[in-house]
């Protein structure tokens, strides 16, 4: 069975934490992956964005949100008036989980044990950065911070408090926007930008 972090991860600066993430063997996902992808961004970030897990390109580059979903995310941030360079961007799960399909690697959602095995890293990132606000991108991040029953589509775009009292807003995942049929794409994208604008208002 996968070991689970039930005590705080004992590292006290971001570089040490990122190094520890890269060496993580707490669940089997490290093995087929190229590398772990820790979060990145300034220690004094006022906001933390939490995605699901690295995708194919992030797995190769070792940096979060640098593939197609990342490009959409960057564009949405820009339109909302947010600066990615001054935010901390991370994922709920630090290794890419995939199914080989010919030459491609198809994204697979991490299961509950894998998500739980990884949760100590996210909590330690939040303890170190101590942001004013956290934004969950998609259901996996929302589950990690707001609980498994969180009704994302009903409660997206509103501020909630997690068990530590941290204000957390959940919105849709940029990959979900990319998967929308052409007729729905624009409104899906707009809704993501609108949710991100609430972050701008909250940080004023
Ligand atoms: N999707 C995510 O959730 N995170 C990434 O880093 C890339 C794609």
Automatic annotation (TrEMBL):
Ranges in coiled-coil conformation: none
- Please report the stretch or stretches of sequence annotated as the Uracil-DNA glycosylase-like domain: 38-197
* Similarity comment: family membership: Belongs to the uracil-DNA glycosylase (UDG) superfamily. Type 4 (UDGa) family.
Q: What protein does this entry describe?
A: Type-4 uracil-DNA glycosylase
Annotated source species: Cognatilysobacter xinjiangensis
Source lineage: Bacteria, Pseudomonadati, Pseudomonadota, Gammaproteobacteria, Lysobacterales
Full protein stretch here: 265 to 468 of 474
């Amino acid at each position: 069975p996968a070991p689970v972090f039930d005590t705080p991860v004992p590292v006290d600066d971001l570089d040490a934490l990122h190094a520890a993430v890269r060496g993580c063997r707490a669940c089997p996902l490290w093995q087929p992956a190229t590398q772990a992808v820790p979060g990145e961004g300034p220690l004094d970030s006022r906001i933390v964005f939490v995605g699901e897990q690295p995708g194919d390109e992030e797995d190769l580059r070792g940096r979060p949100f640098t593939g197609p979903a990342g490009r959409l995310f960057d564009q949405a941030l820009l339109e909302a008036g947010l600066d990615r360079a001054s935010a901390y961007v991370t994922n709920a799960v630090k290794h890419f989980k995939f199914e080989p399909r010919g030459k491609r690697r198809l994204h697979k959602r991490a299961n509950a044990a894998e998500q739980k095995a990884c949760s100590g890293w996210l909590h330690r990132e939040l303890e170190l950065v101590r942001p004013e606000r956290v934004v969950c991108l998609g259901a996996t991040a929302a589950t990690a911070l707001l609980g498994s029953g969180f009704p994302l589509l009903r409660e997206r775009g509103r501020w909630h408090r997690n068990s530590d009292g941290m204000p957390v807003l959940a919105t849709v995942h940029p990959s979900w926007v990319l998967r929308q049929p052409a007729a729905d794409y624009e409104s899906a994208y707009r809704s993501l930008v609108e949710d991100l604008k609430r972050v701008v208002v909250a940080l004023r």
